[in-house]
Amino acid sequence: MITTAGLTEALLWGIANGCIYILLATGLNLIFGVMKLVNFAHGQLLMVGAFIAYEITTIAGINPYLSIFPAMGAVALIGIALERFAFRRVRGTEKLNEIFISLGLIYVFQNLATLFWNENYNIQIPSPLRGLSYSLGEVLLGYDRMLAIAVVIVVLVGLVLLTKKTKIGLAMRATSQRSDTAMLMGININRVYMFTFAVGAALAGAAGALYGIVFSFNPAIGALPTIKAFAIIILGGLGSIPGAVAGGLLYGIAENATGYLTNGIWQDAVAFALLIIVLIIKPTGLFGEKGE
Amino acid sequence: MKIRSMLETLLRSRKLYYALAIVTIAAVLPVFIRSEYLVGQVLTLMVVFALYASSWNLLAYSGQGSLGHAAFLGIGGFASALLATKIGLPPILGLFIGGLFSAAIGFLIGLACVRLKAWFLGMVTFGFAVIAVTTVSQFDNIFGGMIGFATPTIAPYGLSFYYATLAIVTMSIVTILIVMKSKWGLAFKAIRENEPEAKMTGINTGKYRLLAFVISTFFAGLAGGLFAESNQFIQISIFEPYYSFLPLIMSVIGGLGTIEGPMIGSIIIVSIDSFMPLSYPYLQPLNPFFPGVSNVGPSLRLVGLGFFLIIVVIFLPKGITSLLRKGYDYLREDPSASKKVKLDEET
Question: CA–CA separation, A130 vs A115, rounded Å?
């Protein structure tokens, strides 16, 4: 049964889901922008973040929204290790090598997580606001989803301040424009790369905690969020944060509207079809820059 | 004339003799292994995946790393299985029509991909695999859904099927070798190394990238048909990302861009897959430490596979083939060869 209220609700939920994907996509985008590296295992970092937030919330009994911070920190540490011990070693070699490394990481993370948390059993981070919603006529707005949108806005504002107002942000922007010249200007490229990867991973960790609050999850969820984040980046253009925000909202709405109109069956497929069509028409993405 | 010169280059290539040696070993092995399971399952699977990985490798040879090759494996597999069961076509004919069908769809996807860069291409191919499995799972009455259906085989299961598969795969891999050694192969290589420069020298990059896509997806479809027949069974799990990543892992571990790499990779990975389960009973004491699984074996195997891939990429970027080649040069004590290796390292 398709109703206006139902459709409105689907659109609003789409915005909320889109926001979580935006966080993931921005992390991916940041890493790409500065390091010219594509991390296909980014969704696995989201999954790890979700599990860390879950464990902290259930064991320490704190508010799930506070668990976002330790999740971000822990995933950032994992990110530093990945950059230092895996990606740095293939930097400057063939582009495909980075893709291969991240595929290896997908196997490692997903199956290590399977060892500790049952793959066939979905869990969700317990939130005190679960099931509560603000009713706007016939349209229901879940508090959890609205809070998720607020958290995403706060994190994104923080990220913009970090890249525009701080010294390390300046170094990151310089490195993203031309790494060789940045090195000549006395910027420690290795440190910038490590920091960038840590920030990107932390964004994935935050996205994971929010994902765990809004959706139920298991160790095998990682692949789909990665692809969705990619879809968003492709829609918005590689390396552009406003593009990622626009792409994320567009994608979330398209996905949820399709899901609503087709009872969820074609949700993932139609979104990809949209993505492929955009790429055929404009290979650099809707708002993409020229070049890379 | 052209074909003759092509054959001459082929005969001059050392790789042909390596390939022939591998085929000879593969043909003689069943004489020594008198186990129905080992020949029917393990050896056959090695041969089928050697073709599948080679098809992926050919595409990567042109600089296009597909992350959704399982779509073509599945399309070829389902097309040949459906042609054989629903229409009653002889399985051998269905096999090749399945390959052609896969190549036709590969042509369409290739058209979408010719202008894309490495990671975009990876995403589009991966996305296509998702679309393919979603579409197929909508028509359970045709495709059999999660349960799947039995497929007839081109030859009686066991030894004769193994030899039939070996023959088809050998011909296919020799064809792939001819393509890689030909002018087309040179164009693929030029595109992989530097696409703008390749375009500048007058190579129609779009045409050649599309060509690589069509040839690769044809053989992937063929491998899909053989894979379904070697299981005597097909179900939609053939579209899983696991099967998309498998040829990539095999090619990289064996040696990317070489003809023998995917074969070696296939032998290694299928051996690990087939013989790892024997060690599962010994891993039982670890079970209490890992609450997520009832048996730690399968997950540990995949963790190991991931680490294996990462370690090979970091420490042995040219795959196990490069190790074998170094060993071969060392045994021959060819001073020019060792000098060549040194030069390669310097550049």
Answer: 28
CA distance A174 to chain B (A): 24
Most confident of A23-27, A143-147, A250-254, B240-244: A23-27
Side-chain half-sphere CA neighbours of A60 within 13 A: 13
Residues from chain B contacting residue A273 (CB–CB below 8 Å): 131
Could you give the CA distance from residue B250 to residue B50 in angstroms, rounded to a whole number? 8
Tokens 């889901």 appear where? A17
Residue A31 placed within a domain? yes
- pTM for the model stands at 0.84
Record: contact A276-B313, CB cut-off 8 A: no
Q: Give the fold, CATH level 3, of B2-277+295-315.
A: ABC transporter involved in vitamin B12 uptake, BtuC (1.10.3470)
Please tell me whether residue B157 adopts helix, strand or coil conformation: coil
Q: For A126-153, what is each residue's pLDDT tens digit?
A: 877 777 777 777 777 778 888 888 888 9
Give the total number of structural domains in chain A: 1
What residues of A are in contact with residue B290 (Cβ under 8 Å)?
Answer: 115-116
Determine the residue type at A190: N
Domain CATH number, residue A21: 1.10.3470
Distance of CA B315 to the CA centre of its chain: 23
Closest chain A residue to B124, measured at CA: A276
Q: Nearest-CA neighbor of A90 among B191, B309, B321?
A: B309
pLDDT in tens, A96-137: 788 889 889 988 998 888 888 877 778 888 877 777 777 777
Backbone torsions φ then ψ of A136, nearest 5 degrees: -120, 85
